[in-house]
Design goal:
Blueprint: E1 5-7, E2 18-19, E3 31-34, E4 40-49, E5 52-56, E6 62-66, H1 72-88, E7 100-102, H2 109-128, H3 132-148, E8 156-161, H4 166-172, E9 181-184, E10 188-192, E11 225-228, E12 233-239, E13 248-252, E14 257-259, E15 280-282, E16 288-290, E17 308-310, E18 315-317, E19 335-338, E20 341-345, E21 356-359, E22 362-364, E23 367-369, E24 387-396, E25 399-406, E26 409-417, E27 423-430, E28 436-441
Parallel strand pairs: 1-8, 18-20
Antiparallel strand pairs: 2-4, 3-4, 4-5, 5-6, 7-8, 9-10, 10-11, 12-21, 13-14, 13-17, 15-16, 17-18, 19-20, 22-23, 24-25, 25-26, 26-27, 27-28
Helix pairs in contact: 2-3
The chain binds zinc ion (2 copies).
């Protein structure tokens, strides 16, 4: 069965949307809004949807920006406007979830027809964006609701989701700038970072250790992380239990990649001593990455930001919703529609996060593409039996010391690199043997 997908710009059309005009095009005066990052946007207030403000630009294009991204003066101005319109408008029903499940078995042509009618209806008002907009939106939603209560519902899903405004992605990385750099084009939002852990002591507590340590990675330029700006629901979501055991499946808001909770042998890293308290460890290229959602990145209080962005374009939150309430009603992918957006959540047991990639992805060699490459400087080592990492200390800007114990004996890996980021020196200090020093140059 096909899945109907309507990609609509944050669907100004739904009846849950509050619009500034009760009929007709009625575009308001174009004004300039100041964002909290100092940038300006031009447009007229079109509607509010959840915590998103939809601005209509001169070209007629709609732009969605989270309310919290506006300067406080403009937030106040927009809230006043919303209050004014709420008073003006008659109460509108607000069906927030936009998922409809309809029968997958049997020959139910009426449902087929209804869905097609629904598609045409939605398509029509999208094209015209005219006076029929709200009427069609309401009719479409009623139709969706009607379908959703039909008996024997299972797998067919109709969803109305839109492109992700790059500004809304950008705001989620704000806390980790300038160590994380961002930019975007029409297709992807790019994240540049060196992938180093931001919480210390990283690596501490690992008991299954391959002798790798975190070194900076060149996730920059054409090797940057890429988050799709136009996520599309996949017909067949890819399971992380059977695929994607190589490379990252998400990029955390601190610029550290997030891998499949299962390692490349299909074991849950979290359950076998491979991870530190933050859910991270290092790969063969001395590349630090997480294997579970880095929930420690969720700030206390305030509005919750996602902890990462999955490489299919959907957010990954910790255990809580953006408003601080505990997440419930997760689907089999460990995600759900919430306030008009689809996102994933962390859970504290297997499979920990993102059971399958809900969005369309391109896979090559068992990895999501595009996928930046980690770059090691030395030949990878083997697991060190009986070792426990007891500390990782940053001694200087480009200088770290990792401490570990084997059979009660303490050893260190003392390592540093020069300002070019190319030349590395590793000192291996063991209690009862000589200190050994190796130098490496990154190609
Ligand atoms: Zn790993
Ligand atoms: Zn949620």
């Amino acid at each position: 069965m096909r899945v109907f997908i309507f990609t609509v710009l944050l669907s100004a059309a739904l009846s849950s949307t509050m619009t500034a005009h009760s009929g007709g095009h009625g575009r308001g005066p174009v004004s300039t809004f100041l964002l909290s990052n100092g940038r300006h946007v031009h447009g007229s207030f079109h509607s509010a949807r959840g915590s998103w403000i939809i601005l209509e630009q001169r070209s007629g294009a709609l732009k969605a920006i989270p309310l919290e991204q506006f300067s406080s003066a403009d937030q106040q101005r927009l809230e006043d406007e919303i209050g004014r319109i709420t008073k003006m408008n008659a109460p509108v029903e607000a069906p927030s979830p936009i998922v409809v499940q309809t029968p997958t078995s049997g020959k139910d042509h009426s449902t087929e027809l209804a869905l097609i009618a629904c598609a045409l209806l939605l398509g029509t008002f999208m094209v015209t964006r005219s006076t029929s907009l709200r009427i069609a939106g309401t009719a479409g939603t009623m139709l969706l609701l009607f379908l959703s209560v039909s008996p024997g519902t299972t797998a067919r899903i109709v969803e109305i989701l839109g492109p992700t405004p790059p500004e809304s992605i950008d705001s989620t990385f704000a806390a980790y700038k300038p160590r994380v750099k961002t930019r975007w084009d029409a297709t992807y939002f790019y994240v540049e970072s060196n992938g180093m852990p931001t919480a210390m002591p990283a690596m501490k507590g690992i008991t299954a250790w391959q002798q790798q340590v975190p070194i900076p990675q060149p996730y920059t330029g054409s090797n940057a992380w890429a988050i799709p700006l136009n996520p599309v629901i996949a017909d067949v979501p890819v399971s992380l239990d059977t695929a994607l055991h190589t490379g990252a499946v998400a990029i955390a808001v601190n610029g550290v990649p997030v891998f499949n909770p299962e390692n490349n042998r299909g074991e849950f890293s979290q359950d076998i001593g491979e991870l530190d308290a933050f859910g991270g460890h290092c790969g063969r290229a001395d590349d630090y990455h997480y294997h579970i959602a880095p929930v420690h990145l969720t700030p206390k209080g305030t509005i919750k930001i996602p902890v990462a962005w999955a490489l299919d374009g959907y957010k990954l939150y910790g255990y809580e919703e953006p408003d601080g309430t505990v997440a419930t009603n997760l689907d089999q992918h460990l995600g759900h529609l919430w306030n008009g957006e689809y996102h994933y959540h962390a859970i504290d047991k297997k499979p920990y996060m993102i059971a399958s990639m809900r969005g369309k992805i391109t896979i090559q060699n068992d990895q999501v593409m595009p996928q930046p490459r980690a770059a090691g400087v030395r030949t990878f080592l083997q697991a060190l039996k009986g070792a426990t990492i007891t500390d990782l200390r940053q001694c200087d800007t480009n200088h770290f010391a990792l401490r570990y114990e084997v059979n009660g004996k303490t050893s260190f890996v003392n390592y540093r690199w020069d300002s070019t980021g190319k030349n590395f020196v590793f000192n291996f200090v063991k209690t009862d043997s000589a200190r050994t020093t190796f130098t490496y140059t990154r190609k």
